[in-house]
Amino acid sequence: MYSKILILHFPPAVAQKAVVCYLTKKYDLLFNILGAKVSNSKDGYMVLEICGTRDNYKKGVRYLKNQGVRVSSAEQEIWRDTSKCTHCGACTAVCPTQALYVKRPEMEVIYDKDKCTVCELCIVTCPTRAMGLYSSKNTEDMLQ
Amino acid sequence: MGEFKVNKTYAEINEKIKSGKAVVVTAEEIIGIVKENGPVEAAAQVDVVTTGTFAPMCSSGAFLNIGQSTPSVRTTKTWFNDVPAYSGVAAVDSFLGATEVSINDPLNKIHPGEFNYGGAHVLQDLVSGKKVEVRAESYGTDCYPNRKIEKTMTLADMPQAIMCNPRNGYQNYNCAINRTDKTKYTYMGTLKPNMANANYCSAGQLSPLFNDPYLKTIGIGTRIFLGGTQGYVSWSGTQHKSDVQRGLNGVPLTPAGTLFVMGNLKEMSPEWLVAQSIRGYGVSLSMGLGIPIPILNEEMAKFTAVADEDLFTQVVDYGHDYPQAISKSYGQISYAELKSGTIMIQGQEIPTVPLSSMIKARKIAMLLKESIKNGSFLLGEPQHIF
């Protein structure tokens, strides 16, 4: 089973339509809504965890894009500066998906990017500002 | 003397350290040794047990002397990177407190505030070797006519920089929950409504004052690991309490002892002195603190052998009770339970959140162990016990 967290941006015209439900209906994908909101300008925003076969996942994402939904991958956007992290654990209080969790018995704070929904709560909660929001391009720069 | 089977003095242990023969273990390692061999045998074997803790310690700061200017100045107001330092002391001396925030900080005007820069950040910048903008004012006197100075300084440029922390190393601390229906932003971290998380802040079995519950070996002059260098206990800390409820092992069940510690800021490292921006609360400073406990007798071996399951604290509601100064415990829980990841309070399973870094605490205990073993760290015999 393949599982991935995606961020979907719906332009105002698309935000009014039923789109996401077809991931299940047409492509046999399961989805879990981790976050959703509609802005004042009627743009829609949704964080989805999608599960299914890899093949169906690809078809599903293609379908979303064809409907005019901007799809971006969540995992590339929150970055931990490991030189700043003191493994205090304060972030684990607010992380809604346990992407940030304490490994026991070592009591080391682990960041599992695959579970991150980019809610950004860790950024303002981390006392040493070790968590940051980066575009995928910047993340690549940082990795080099 | 006489009441113990094993009797060692500070001088004897220091001689062993100097000759490289001292047996040193960490507060985690001693647990198994005492369990296996008993306290008498352990006390005969082990000379020193090292402890460590790394957590926000708000009552921290430094006396900074910025050197004289021409013409001379008696600074009455001083700012470091726009963070005010208390200047009601002699010319060009000031005390920069860790929790002081930058003058332009919006504080909690938009709640919860971020508190991105304060005294702790200045201290961390200084020990990192960064340049700091120093600004000071004076009313001018015949002997000190200068009324305003501005300069850029590094820590190396300062004649003296003395870390002076009036309340560090708390012996035990509350576990915080929030029983209200709104998120609370506290010095114990973010507390979600309806007891959705329980935050605690102690290194437990590695924590210095848990390993010497009656402070029998810790007093004025005890040499310690502080911020990456050798510092000293200079007094008991503010809010120090010894008359508290204790478990059968003598360990306090509530916040109790504290230490007033000092050290040379110029020798410290940014690895062990880290500024904290605590959302909705303010700025604090996480200090690396480690205390070597001399195993003078089997009683000290027994004290240092405490494990997380023998150490307890109280669950306190920081949503309603604590702000209203209501002293009420929603349960007494062990650090073993806290470190397990969940606790049970009033039939509800609550995920626990540590605020004290065990990774760093363990490293401090290891570093201290190494420096005692290689003879570079000698025990300081306390000149006065609290």
Automatic annotation (TrEMBL), chain A:
The keyword Iron-sulfur applies. GO terms for molecular function: 4 iron, 4 sulfur cluster binding; metal ion binding. The keyword NADP does not apply. Keywords: 4Fe-4S, Iron, Iron-sulfur, Metal-binding. Residues 76-105, 107-136 form the 4Fe-4S ferredoxin-type domain. It holds the Pfam family NIL. Gene3D superfamilies: 3.30.70.20, 3.30.70.260. This is 4Fe-4S dicluster domain-containing protein. It comes from Desulfocicer vacuolatum DSM 3385. The lineage of its organism: Bacteria, Pseudomonadati, Thermodesulfobacteriota, Desulfobacteria, Desulfobacterales.
UniProtKB/TrEMBL annotation, chain B:
Pfam families: HcyBio. It comes from Desulfocicer vacuolatum DSM 3385. InterPro entries: HcyBio. Residues 22-379 form the Homocysteine biosynthesis enzyme sulfur-incorporation domain. It comes from the Bacteria. This is Uncharacterized conserved protein, DUF39 family.
